[in-house]
Amino acid sequence: MEYVFEMEMMVRDYECDLQGIVNNSVYQNYLEHCRHEFLHEIGLDFSELCAEGIDAVVTRIELDYKLSLKPRDVFVVKLGMHKEGRVRFVFDQAITRKSDGKGVLEAQVTGVLTRNGRPIAPRLFDDVFAAKGWKF
């Protein structure tokens, strides 16, 4: 997997459940935060797209949990991206614990861009990826 973006984060106490580990649902927040930061990094803004009538919609999320994070663990969220078919795009993501590099989670988040509720080709990613020399 070719990752083109990554960011570091730390587990906050309130993200953990009674077992003292990060609640499974919180990992989706980590992944989403990374996706939003990535889009800002490449010059795309959800509010601007929405104002233009384009909405990004998640259609499927697949998560494979490997091990649990605990309070104050520092971790890295990595992101890659590829097309799937004519209108779908997939964020390939992984979370690794920084202290030992062990894999915490692997995810694929599939989405589409819509205009007036109808899927459109994700061409806005083509120019950005080409300019950076990334494969999309």
Topology:
Elements: E1 5-10, H1 26-41, H2 46-51, E2 54-65, E3 74-84, E4 88-97, E5 103-115, E6 118-120, H3 124-132
Written account of the structure:
With 136 residues, the protein is of the alpha+beta class. 23% of the residues lie in helices and 40% in strands.
Total tally of structural domains:
1
C-alpha Rg, in Å? 16 Å
- Return the structural class: alpha+beta
Looking at the structure, the CATH topology is Thiol Ester Dehydrase, Chain A
- The amount of beta strand, in percent, is 35-45%
**N-to-C SSE series?**
EHHEEEEEH
Q: Describe the global form.
A: elongated
Total helices: the number is: 3
Level-1 CATH class name: Alpha Beta
The CATH superfamily appears as Hotdog Thioesterase
Q: What is the β-strand count?
A: 6
Mean of residue pLDDT?
93
| Architecture (CATH level 2) name | Roll
Q: Report the helical percentage.
A: 10-25%
Q: Detail the poorly predicted runs.
A: none
Alpha carbon gap, first and last residue: 12 Å
Biggest β-sheet, characterized?
6 strands, antiparallel
Highlighted features:
alpha+beta; about 140 residues; six-stranded antiparallel β-sheet; Thiol Ester Dehydrase, Chain A; single chain
